[in-house]
Specification:
It comes from Rotaria sordida. The protein is an alpha+beta fold. The protein is built from 14 helices and 22 strands. It folds into three domains: about 50 residues, Herpes Virus-1, CATH 3.30.40.10; about 160 residues, no CATH class; about 240 residues, Phosphoenolpyruvate Carboxykinase, domain 3 (Alpha-Beta Complex), CATH 3.90.228. Strands 12, 13, 14, 15, 17, 18, 21 and 22 form an eight-stranded antiparallel β-sheet that branches. A five-stranded mixed β-sheet has the order 7-11-8-10-9, with helices on both faces. It has a three-stranded antiparallel β-sheet with strand order 16-20-19, with no helix packed on it. β1 and β2 form a beta hairpin.
Length: about 500
């Protein structure tokens, strides 16, 4: 017999589901922020609200099916055994077939060389992508928002790949064989369209034999399979750029990026000997219904967004979005994705507090150690980026408390209450929000940079970090240093200074 009643696990009283009510948003948010342990793999410090992502994407001990299950492969096993299974799976097409097909077709670079010159916008964009590649060692990966919109019929599904190699040295067949092997796709699943001169810019398409939905699914699968490790492998193949989606969408990204220029007359250094104010700024400009406080310790590189900026963005509030070192340029080049960790629902997460955005959970702390980085930051040892943004008050869906498990009595920012420090920005159901588009719900007006002569965790304004969540797991807190080492320096009262150059 089916019943609607069950005993309460605490008191044993029989309770009917008809008498239960939904919990409040406040209580639900508190529950989502609880730190829990995965009983399958033993990983601790997982946010309860992100547990589904851990199980569906990361946990090595979750039982999964073979990707060739549609080919009737019966295998089911732990995720960490999947790679070994695929290497012997008779239902899964082995990489050798890709090489055999490539050899049979005898693809030649010269057969696809295009006489059409690269436009100024394309050339400028690719040069910036190369700069990103040279700094990070990884290609810039970009995907059109249409790929994630199931309501749009995908008429064109292109792959555009930039390779940092001259055309006369580029071996198309060898490259495609290696590229397809790494993505575990068949070489006949893509059709080469052309190769543009200069650096080898390879354009290919998902063939017309696949329907719109199949093309979208194929591009999604490719995009989701590109891990950090695979990006590093692509970097070794000299790939500096990879775009997936309709070519028209790429042209739009390139157009907006070309129109973004530095606006040096509004560059600022924020500190007592430079530009400084206490409390909310009252300079006669309308920045919406949220106060603007001095971002002390940061240098702003201002970006030109549009003519008559103060007319168009009158009443828009200033906020900040912390970012990883490799993501700073990537966000400006190809857009910002809504948060994967959705503590307060779907949207872009931002904050009115530059001090909150500087936490290593949000803003990666990058040691300045490579010769390429030394070119730009000559005297510093550590670097952080934060994006300065503008958002209209109507696009702020929600304000809520911090999500870093800060201990009671700890002040993150003396100007802003801990309970109001998170903003959720309406992303208008877009999978990727283009920061470069002046018609977006949120725009980027500048890049804030902080360079220090020692670890920024030693700064007075960073001491609240040690009363919040802080760990050595790089995907969670990008400290740029071992936490024990940082704690040791802090106990010895080592100092840190901000460098302005």
């Amino acid at each position: 017999m089916i019943t609607n009643c069950a005993p309460c696990p605490r008191c044993g009283k029989l309770v009917s589901v008809n008498n239960l009510s939904s919990i409040s948003d406040t209580l639900n948010n508190m529950l989502r922020k609880l730190r829990i342990e995965c009983t399958l793999c033993g990983q601790t410090e997982l946010l309860r609200g992100n547990f589904d992502d851990h199980i569906n994407q990361e946990c090595p001990n979750v039982r999964v099916s073979c990707p060739a299950m549609n080919n009737k492969c019966p295998w089911i096993g732990q995720r960490n055994d999947l790679k070994n299974h695929i290497s012997t799976c008779v239902f899964h097409q082995p990489p050798l077939v890709v090489a055999e097909i490539a050899a049979a077709t005898k693809l030649s670079t010269k057969d696809f060389l295009s006489k059409q010159p690269i436009s100024f916008e394309e050339k400028s964009y690719y040069e910036e992508c190369k700069e990103y590649y040279h700094i990070t060692g990884k290609p810039l990966i970009s995907i059109a928002e249409e790929v994630f919109d199931n309501n749009i019929e995908l008429k064109s599904s292109s792959l555009k790949i930039g390779i940092d190699e001259e055309c006369n040295q580029f071996d198309l067949q060898s490259f495609l064989t290696q590229f397809c092997n790494k993505l575990d796709i068949n070489i006949d699943d893509i059709v080469v369209k052309q190769i543009q001169v200069g650096s080898s810019i390879l354009e290919a398409e998902i063939p017309d034999k696949l329907g719109s939905n199949d093309k979208q699914l194929r591009l999604k699968m490719i995009y989701q399979s590109i891990t950090d490790k695979l990006q590093e492998e692509f970097g070794k193949m000299k790939i500096f750029f990879l775009f997936m989606g309709p070519i028209k969408s790429l042209f739009k990204i390139q157009k907006y990026r070309t129109e973004i220029k530095l606006n040096p007359q509004y560059n600022r250094i924020y500190d007592r000997d430079y530009n400084y104010w206490e409390g909310p700024l009252h300079d006669g400009r309308d920045r919406g219904n949220k106060p603007y406080y001095c971002p002390i310790g940061w240098k702003r590189c201002s970006l030109y967004v549009t003519d008559k900026f103060y007319e168009k963005f009158k009443g828009w509030c200033i906020c900040y979005h912390g970012t990883k070192f490799s993501n700073g340029l990537s966000i400006l080049l190809s857009g910002l994705k809504p948060a994967r960790i959705k503590a307060y629902g779907d949207g872009i997460y931002a904050t009115p507090s530059v001090n909150y955005a500087s936490h290593p959970r949000y803003s990666e702390i990058m040691p300045i150690d490579s010769s390429h980085q030394k070119t730009f930051f000559k005297s510093g040892k550590y670097l952080q980026f934060i994006l300065e943004c503008r958002v209209h008050p109507n696009n702020i869906k929600k304000t809520d408390e911090e999500t870093l498990s800060v201990k009671d009595g700890t002040t993150i920012d003396s100007n802003i209450k801990n309970e109001d420090i998170e903003w959720v920005i309406d992303n208008r159901n877009k999978t990727i929000v283009d920061f470069n588009d002046p018609d977006s719900s949120i725009i980027c007006t500048g890049l804030l940079i902080r360079v220090t002569d020692n670890h920024p965790g030693l700064l007075p304004q960073s001491q609240w970090w040690f009363n919040s969540h802080l760990c050595d797991y790089k995907k969670c807190c990008a400290l740029g240093i071992d936490l024990d080492s940082l704690e040791g320096q802090r106990q010895h009262e080592n100092k840190c200074n901000i460098i302005y150059e």
